[in-house]
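stuck on whats below:

***
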Amino acid sequence: MASSALLVVAVTGCDGSGDGSVVAPRKALSACETLIGREGVEWAEAAAPVPVEESTQGRLDLAKAERWYQSSAYAWDPSKADKTHMSIDPPVCEIGPVGAKVEARSVEISYGGSISGFDKLESGSEQLGEGVRVISVNQDVRLVLWTGTRDETLRSVHVRCKVPQTPEGQEDGMPLQGMMSDSLTNDRDDKNRLTYLLRSAHVVVEAFDCENHPTVPTQLPDGWRSG
């Protein structure tokens, strides 16, 4: 009799509330949903000219992305702070056409070490090049609108994140960088790209161990279009 009772509980999925209702397991969030929310994924789906899906090939989870960034922070050399750094970071989130090959168009977000020191991120600076625009979000966060190409829009977010046991000034010399490459959508307005990129940085910084606890908002600053 006892074994029969256990079988009934197992089949009905009773949660202890007494009504015998089945409790469906929660579906785990995908990598892109974790970073930009379901709303962000729906933006990419609606703005793409073809049906899309999330790719899992070659992407990093947040723990691996943190280690990738930490390796750049540990390698940062204060004596070479004025130089532009190379940044080749595997994606954390990628959305592309259903069944497409690796080289297909996509919305891709990657995280790693910044290509430039935080104080060098200024509109019109020689290091960034002509036509590159910088939006100061707060004292810890800056967004960069790169010139990109006709078929690709590049936007990045940079956060002063101090990695434990790194030299003084690392958070300025080698800040955290999130890069969004969009060769997929037909969205002519940058508000969506920048908003979801900023939200992804908020999620990443919450997951990373930044000694200085930088503040990353989830909304663009007032007047962000100006300048």
Notes: The longest strand covers residues 91-97.
